[in-house]
Amino acid sequence: MYLRDRVIVLRKDPYREHDRRYVMFGVEHGLLSAVARGASLPKSKQAGHLEPFSEAEVMIAKGAAFDKLAVAKLVPGSAMRDVQRATSLVAQTVLGAFADLVIRLSRPGISDERVFALLKELVEALSALPSEPSADRSRFVHAAAMLKLLDLIGFGPAIEMDDAQLTTVLKFMRGAALSDILRVTASREMLQNASSFVEDALTQAPLDVEPHGVQTIRSYVG
After folding, report:
1. Among the three residues 17, 48, 74, which one is the final residue of a domain in this structure?
2. Which domain holds residue 67?
3. Is the dihedral angle over the CA atoms 213, 219, 220, 221 positive or is it negative?
4. I need a surface site. Which of 22, 109, 144, 199 has the fewest CB within 10 A?
């Protein structure tokens, strides 16, 4: 049996001698994991289509011990095609941290197209930057993406507080596009305070409780 999906690659890890295990997030099937046989070999045809943060069309074969990546093809014209070359080291660090968070907060068998769209939005926003973002601004956009993710899975924190300026910034983080958030004008202290608020909210979220607002995935089809 097989499934087909459009995915964003979140991580790749060595698996056995010449294989790689890929963790992906799909439009229709959510969190996916599959092994690509021979992907670490120079002659591998699939490896170039499966770099982290790239967008690909995949077909995955259901297996008894592990699922196998049967077909992988980079999406033509995707803004993420050259993400490894186009983004700065700081931006790639943000993407890696957010990918790890998506893996941590996602459950296999749950589908949410909005999470896929958020991942794609973050990659496109960071890859389009003309210069290296500062550490504070990188932390800020990562916090904004985290806040949006918490909202999507049903654990978004309340942001009304006595500090009117911080409340305004947090509302902006919640509602604005990530490309706009990267360019917001704010003091270093405000960027740090807003980032700290979201990071604290993540540590306090009851993530062991079943999240809301998601759908069960489709079954494998033959």
Report:
1. 74
2. 2-74
3. negative
4. 109
